[in-house]
Amino acid sequence: MGTRPSNYERRLQIKHFFEDRSTGQTRRTWLEIQFQPPEKSEEGWVNEGKVRLTLGEDRDIKGAFLLSISETARLIKALELIVEDHELEAARLWRE
């Protein structure tokens, strides 16, 4: 019984360009989010899907995280709370 290669779909890529102060060149960092949907095993079990976050600089991959769906849900909630806190603080500062 062989293993199938993982089937990830690209869902989002965020690129950030910046001026490298030491060389004066324009550099790029990026974040890519990929999704592997749930699959049914040969034994009839449903294997949970995964989310892969990949961080890179220029063309090199610097790091990657493989998250379960529950870890992804916690990350989403944390990001939502950060955005809500930001919006509340920005609104407070505009009112001053």
Describe this structure in words.
This protein is an alpha+beta fold. It contains one helix and six strands, in the order E-E-E-E-E-E-H. It has a four-stranded antiparallel beta sheet with strand order 1-2-5-6. A hairpin with a 6-residue loop joins strand 1 (9-19) and strand 2. The model has no long low-confidence stretch (mean pLDDT 91).
Please count the helical segments. 1
Q: Between the first and last Cα atoms, what is the distance in angstroms?
A: 67 Å
* SSE arrangement, N to C: EEEEEEH
Task: Determine the mean pLDDT.
Answer: 91
**Unreliable parts:** none
Category by helix and strand content: alpha+beta
Number of strands: 6
Percent of residues in beta strands = 35-45%
List the helices and strands and how they pair.
Layout: E1 9-19, E2 26-36, E3 39-40, E4 46-47, E5 50-57, E6 60-68, H1 69-95
Antiparallel strand pairs: 1-2, 2-5, 3-4, 5-6
Give a short synopsis of this structure.
By secondary structure, the protein is an alpha+beta fold. Helices cover 28% and strands 45% of the residues. Strands 1-2-5-6 form a four-stranded antiparallel beta sheet. The protein has a two-stranded antiparallel ribbon with strand order 3-4.
Which keywords apply here?
96 residues; alpha+beta; two-stranded antiparallel sheet
